[in-house]
Design brief:
208 residues, alpha/beta, four-stranded mixed beta sheet
């Protein structure tokens, strides 16, 4: 166990969560996997009034780490919840199972076509995305009230809109493509024809 986390915290986990912990620890540093009562308690709330204490908190930094988390969760029937900034008022970024935290990483971006398009990783704030686009006289479609604090991951996942964009320029209507990691660890890039073709061939049931 990592320094500062007692064996008792790990042993207190239900059996399938211990198995999950051990499996993901093979590919994710122990310094980013928490099961102690202090840090799990700290992650037990978001901007809503709900409280659910996660059994395990994992900070992820790469797509391969997410693939490992999801593949293992699928095999062990462990539910996983993702959190970017945790600014939602509805409680969808709290869980009593495994909480996967993106904040602190996922900061890359790239502007295309004179600001007509922008590629964003999920750890970028909405206001930062607009700052990247400001020199081109552009901004992202969604304008949620929490845009100075919420992150692109949550903006996309929640189909964020806002007082100005309404439903005409919400997340779903302004996303051109997305990189997706499925429950079995499969990577899908919807902008890549070869990736789409491979997905159709490998997951015919899901496509159907």
């Amino acid at each position: 166990m990592p320094k500062g986390i007692g064996r008792g915290d790990y042993k207190a986990l239900p059996e399938k969560y211990r198995a999950y912990h051990d499996a993901i620890a093979a590919g994710i540093p122990m310094s980013r996997i928490y099961c102690d009562p202090f840090r799990t308690l700290a992650h037990g709330t978001d901007a809503s009034f709900y409280r659910l204490i996660p059994k395990i908190v994992v900070k992820v930094r790469t797509p391969d780490e997410i693939a490992l988390l999801l593949r293992t969760a699928h095999l062990l029937s462990v539910s996983v919840t993702f959190r970017a900034a945790g600014t939602s008022l509805s409680g969808q970024s709290v869980t009593d199972s495994v909480l996967v935290v993106l904040a602190g990483g996922w900061r890359k971006h790239r502007v295309f076509d004179g600001g007509d398009r922008i590629a964003l990783e999920p750890g970028i704030l909405g206001s930062e995305a607009n700052a990247f686009l400001a020199p081109f006289g552009r901004k992202i479609g969604p304008d949620p009230a929490s845009i100075n604090h919420c992150m692109i991951g949550g903006i996309a996942a929640n189909n964020a809109s806002g007082m100005c964009c309404g439903t005409a320029q919400n997340s779903y209507r302004t996303v051109e493509s997305m990189k997706v990691i499925l429950h079995d660890g499969t990577h899908l890039d919807t902008a890549d024809p070869l990736s789409r073709k491979a997905f159709v061939e490998s997951h015919p049931g899901l496509v159907e």
